[in-house]
Amino acid sequence: WVGCVVCEVYACYTMWKKKPPNSPSKRVTWPMYKHPSAKDGLEVMLNVPKKANDALHLSLLEGCDISLDELGEVILQDTLHVWDPKQLIRKGRERHCFLFELYLVFSKEVKDSSGKAKYIYKNKLMTSELGVTEHIEGDECKFAVWTGRAPISDFRIVLKASSLDSKQHWVKKLREVIQETYFSSALPLSLPKSPAKLKAGSQRSSRDLEDSTSLDESVENLDRGSLASFGSGNTTDSDKTGGVE
């Protein structure tokens, strides 16, 4: 039932988009579409097939060394070519990659004698430790993820998407997840501890002023030293690689 509703809504939206800009029916429906709740509802409805597709692929993942609950929500999943530096012949291997809230997981697709596919877990990286390089010299569809301090990384993996649009979508989502996981773990550590009970009203005012100054310094230090770790998204690197099974 949900699938039928989604298809119907999407079909109506597609027809509306194709109408001439000054079409009377389009002018009538446009205010409804501009309404935030209507737009949000449409986005939710159109997101249902993606959620179902992600859940289907996730159900095929086997052998992961941690539970699915520890991985977080699936943000993105697709088949990418991955370069393994441990191989003498530098040939990209096809891997099905899952971007979760907390991890980037690599798996290998295999099929049994009946042709049924499943994904065998190979490796994972914590998103809180990742950096992203958007441009790899020589191929517009390649990008890289790495750990360590940029621009010299201790661990680097080069990936290739099926198209430039797909690559840009991966880079965008990776950056969003990296920032979210970083701030969720870093901000609580930057907050000052609660002050002890104050003996008098004048002491309370002094402590409040000190706490405010401490909080400002914490935020300033966070802005100054931490945001650079999100990755050099617009830099161009040569085709060097890091390890993945």
Largest sheet: 8 strands, mixed
CATH level-1 class of the largest domain? Mainly Beta
Query: CATH homologous superfamily of the largest domain?
Result: Pleckstrin-homology domain (PH domain)/Phosphotyrosine-binding domain (PTB)
Secondary structure tally: strands: 10
Q: Largest sheet, order of strands side by side? A: 1-5-4-3-2-9-8-6
| Basic shape | globular
Kindly report the CATH topology of the largest domain.
PH-domain like
The rounded distance between the terminal residues' Cα atoms is: 42 Å
What's the gyration radius in Å?
24 Å
- Structural class, judged by helices and strands? alpha+beta
Concise overview:
The chain is an alpha+beta fold. The chain has six helices and ten strands; from the N terminus they run αααβαββββββββααβ. The longest helix is centred in the last third of the chain and has 27 residues, at 164-190.
